[in-house]
Write a structure and sequence with these properties.
The chain has about 170 residues and is of the alpha/beta class. It contains 5 helices and 4 strands; from the N terminus they run E-H-H-E-H-E-H-E-H. It has a 4-stranded parallel sheet, with helices on both faces. It is globular and about 40 Å long. The mean pLDDT is about 75.
């Protein structure tokens, strides 16, 4: 175990969802062709010679989850603000016990979320203040659990970038 510890919180980009190629089905993304060691989180932790705790679920957002363009309503159940606190996020048959935040205390936390909150569907983006408040609440939760950690909120969507520039997202 290395002395450096980084926690990565995110969605499919952080998980490395569908980042492996498998023959004819290489265009199909699923858990079978996912390797978190080949995600940016995996590469970054090895480059920095650090242990990594990757908390990532494909399709999850800060306050809204990915939905198809034809969906009639927004999916908010089990978003990353809720999943972050769980020991086994959304695994079938997993217990709903909370993660023991004392079992892994990182010096650095990287949050890479926002894409699924704003995936271009009709209900998205109508209330950026709600997104801002939920994002801020997630950062406050992280700061409460790891008060000595450096937290990096990585913008990966134009709306998040604009919110961070205008409000200078502070917790």
């Amino acid at each position: 175990m290395q002395n450096r510890k980084i926690e990565f919180i995110g969605d499919s980009f952080t998980a490395g969802y569908g980042n492996l190629e498998y023959g004819k089905d290489s265009r199909v993304k699923n858990a079978a062709n996912t390797d978190s060691r080949r995600s940016y989180a995996g590469y970054a932790s090895r480059f920095l010679d650090a242990d990594a705790n990757i908390v990532a679920v494909s399709g999850k957002g800060v306050c809204m989850n990915y939905i198809s363009a034809s969906a009639a309503s927004v999916s908010t159940n089990g978003n990353m603000t809720e999943q972050y606190k769980m020991a086994n996020p959304i695994l079938p048959g997993a217990t709903s016990e909370e993660w023991n935040f004392e079992s892994y205390i990182p010096q650095v936390v990287v949050v890479f979320l926002g894409t699924n909150d704003y995936n271009g569907t009709n209900p998205r983006g109508s209330n950026p203040q709600y997104f801002y408040e939920q994002y801020k609440n997630l950062l406050k939760t992280i700061n409460t659990k790891y008060p000595d950690a450096h937290i990096f909120a990585v913008p990966n969507h134009q709306a998040l970038t604009e919110i961070m520039q205008k409000k200078q997202l502070r917790i």
